[in-house]
TrEMBL record:
It comes from Limnospira maxima CS-328. This is Transglutaminase domain protein. It comes from the Bacteria. Signal peptide: none annotated. InterPro entries: Bac_transglu_N, Papain-like_cys_pep_sf, Transglutaminase-like. Residues 171-235 form the Transglutaminase-like domain. The lineage of its organism: Bacteria, Bacillati, Cyanobacteriota, Cyanophyceae, Oscillatoriophycideae.
C-alpha cells in the first residue's frame, strides 16, 4: 500500500508568548515494514533553527526552536509512505520462546530488552494477564490474540485528544478508554508475562471515506525469532500494511507527537488539528 498523509496541528494563544524548543515526532519511520518515500514540514512562525535527531529509542525526530513572540504555532507535515507487511505472522519463533511466561531469555537479549520489560505492573493488568494465560495454556501467540480480543470486546473506545494514557487499572475498571489507554493496558498485561513491549504512535487506514481522522496508537511485542510485532487492541488486529508507524518507545510519553511549551504570564493555549490519509495504491 502507498499512502499520502497530510497532518496539520495549530496552537493558538490568547496573547503573545515565547515558545520553548519543540520536539516533533511526526516523521514516519523507515524499516522492514514501511518505507518513507517523501516527507516535508512547514512551520509558522518560521523557526530560528530545525535539527534532525535520532532519539534514545532510535526514532527520527525534529527539534524546533524560535526567537520571536507569537500568538500562533502551526506545524504541517506531509508524508508519502509505502507499507510492506502483508502477512503479520510470517516468522518462526525461537523454540525457547513458545510458552509463557518467558523466564529464560539469553543474557545478551535480556540486557537489550530490560527497559521494555521492567516497570511497576498494575495489579489489574496482572490479573487480566493471568486469566488470559490460563485460557491460552501458555501458548504465546494464542495469549496475544486472546488478550487483544478481550480488551477489544470488553472496553468501549473513546476519543481523548490530549493527556497522558490512563493507568491500566482505571481503563479496565471503566471498561473504556482511548487507543493509548487500551494500548497501555495491553502492554502491561504482556509485561506481567515477561514479554517486552513498546508503545507506537502512528496512523491507521480505517475508513477512507470518513474525514474525521485521528492519530492512532498500538503496541509492539518483541517475539524472539519474529522481532517487534504490532498488536492493536482498539481494532483487535495484528498490525499489517494498513498502519503507518511514526515512533515507538518503552515509555508512552516519549512517543507523543509534539512536545513543547510556552512562556507568558496569564497565557493559555488551544489546539486543533486536521488529518487526511489517502491511499494511492
Amino acid at each position: 500500500m502507498i499512502y499520502q498523509i497530510a497532518h496539520t496541528t495549530i496552537y493558538t494563544y490568547n496573547k503573545y508568548v515565547e515558545l520553548t524548543p519543540h520536539i516533533v515526532r511526526l516523521r514516519p519511520r523507515s524499516d522492514a515494514f514501511q518505507t518513507l518515500q517523501d516527507f516535508a514540514i512547514d512551520v509558522v512562525p518560521e523557526p530560528k533553527g530545525i535539527s534532525a535527531i535520532v532519539d534514545l529509542n532510535g526514532n527520527d525526530v525534529l527539534k524546533l526552536w524560535f526567537d520571536e513572540p507569537t500568538k500562533e504555532l502551526k506545524i504541517k507535515v506531509s508524508s508519502q509512505v509505502e507499507t510492506h507487511c502483508h502477512n503479520p505472522f510470517n516468522y518462526l519463533l525461537e523454540p525457547w520462546a513458545m510458552k509463557l511466561p518467558i523466564a529464560d531469555y539469553p543474557a545478551p537479549i535480556l540486557r537489550h530488552l530490560q527497559p521494555y520489560i521492567e516497570g511497576r505492573v498494575d495489579p489489574a493488568a496482572v490479573q487480566l494477564a493471568q486469566e488470559i494465560w490460563h485460557g491460552s495454556r501458555g501458548e504465546i501467540l494464542t495469549f496475544l490474540s486472546d488478550l487483544n480480543q478481550r480488551i477489544y470486546r470488553t472496553c468501549r473506545y473513546t476519543i481523548r485528544e490530549t493527556g497522558a494514557a490512563f493507568p491500566p487499572g482505571i481503563t479496565w475498571r471503566q471498561q473504556a478508554g482511548s487507543c493509548r489507554d487500551l494500548t497501555v493496558l495491553f502492554m502491561e498485561a504482556c509485561r506481567a508475562m515477561g514479554l517486552a513491549t513498546r508503545f507506537v504512535s502512528g496512523y491507521q487506514e480505517g475508513d477512507l471515506n470518513n474525514s474525521d481522522r485521528h492519530l492512532h496508537a498500538w503496541a509492539e511485542v518483541y517475539l524472539p525469532g519474529g522481532g517487534w510485532r504490532g498488536y492493536d487492541p482498539t481494532q483487535n488486529l495484528a498490525i499489517s500494511d494498513r498502519n503507518i508507524a511514526l515512533v515507538s518507545s518503552a515509555i508512552p510519553e516519549y512517543a507523543s507527537p509534539i512536545n513543547g511549551s510556552f512562556r507568558g504570564r496569564g497565557a493559555y493555549s488551544q489546539m486543533k488539528y486536521d488529518l487526511s490519509i489517502e491511499k494511492l495504491c
